[in-house]
Specification:
By secondary structure, this protein is an alpha/beta fold. The protein contains 8 helices and 12 strands. The protein has one domain (3-12, 29-250): UDP-N-acetylmuramoyl-L-alanine:D-glutamate ligase (3-Layer(aba) Sandwich), CATH 3.40.1190.20. The strands form 2 sheets. Strands 4-1-7-8-9-10-11-12 form an 8-stranded mixed beta sheet, sandwiched between helices. Strands 3-2-5-6 form a 4-stranded mixed beta sheet. The two termini are 20 Å apart.
């Protein structure tokens, strides 16, 4: 069950520390660093979660990787500041895209953070080249995505694409709703079965996407896949920083 992941990737840095007093020069907390944690994010986080769920993968990703550095209070887990560097990445070369042996993969997963690695025409090409494509995108949806088999977006992204989705979209649309779970095709609701205290939302969408793909490849049933993806994301938000899910961690 080889899967190809395509999309930009980043480096997620977490600086944990204590905020014991307020700066005398300005009304801001003084941050004393204690611990640093570094993870690969975006498409590389999707890849890590898929492989941890026993799905063999290859990846095509950007050479330039944005760095997202977060400063977090250790006690409250409250993020104080996020600093992004190298935010625009290199575009995928069309020659490389044309040479991908799509027939060798059971599925293609597009993790599109809209940083410049994939444009709309390239995504349309991928969807035409492979019958089983999954996509999580930050782009506003339009006709370019109509051949994607399964599109996963969050509630804010759904509102931004509302007009197109309700006028002409007919494929499988999965909208994640945070602690309320997810919906399929505007009508089927999939609530979170077991609620957990939320510690950190970073990377939860990537974990959901990986869980969705892994379960669908096993059972070929999208409602079952959404329920499993909910379980994966619900576990991820209880962890510190970016975490990689596994069947052992889910106690399955």
């Amino acid at each position: 069950m080889n899967v190809l992941v395509i999309g930009e990737s980043c480096i997620d840095e977490f600086e944990y520390g204590k905020c014991g007093r307020i700066c005398p020069e300005a009304p801001v907390p003084i941050f004393a660093p204690l611990e640093e944690k570094i993870n690969f994010g975006m498409s590389l986080n999707v890849l890590a979660n898929l492989m941890s769920l026993d799905i063999p993968c290859n990846i095509i990703t950007s050479k330039i990787r944005p760095i997202k550095k977060r400063y977090i209070d250790e006690v409250s887990n409250q993020m104080l500041l996020r600093v992004d560097s190298n935010d625009n990445v290199d575009n995928l070369d069309w020659k490389k895209l044309n040479n991908i042996p799509f027939s060798e993969y059971e599925a293609v997963v597009i993790s599109d953070y809209d940083k410049g690695f994939l444009d709309r025409e390239q995504i349309r090409y991928i969807a035409d080249a492979h019958p089983l494509t999954f996509m999580d995108t930050k782009k506003t949806l339009d006709e370019w995505c109509c051949n994607i088999k399964f599109v996963k977006i969050n509630e804010k992204e759904y509102q931004e694409s509302w007009s197109f989705l309700h006028e002409g979209y007919r494929n499988n649309l999965i909208v994640t709703l945070g602690k309320r779970g997810a919906t399929l095709n505007f009508r089927e609701n999939f609530p979170i079965e077991d609620e957990h205290p939320v510690r950190d939302l970073t990377g939860a969408g990537d974990t959901f996407l990986a869980g969705l793909v892994a379960s669908y490849l096993k059972d070929k049933d999208i409602p079952t896949a959404i329920k499993f993806a909910n379980k994966c994301a619900a576990w991820a938000v209880t962890q510190k920083g970016v975490a990689v899910v596994s069947l052992d961690k889910l106690k399955i």
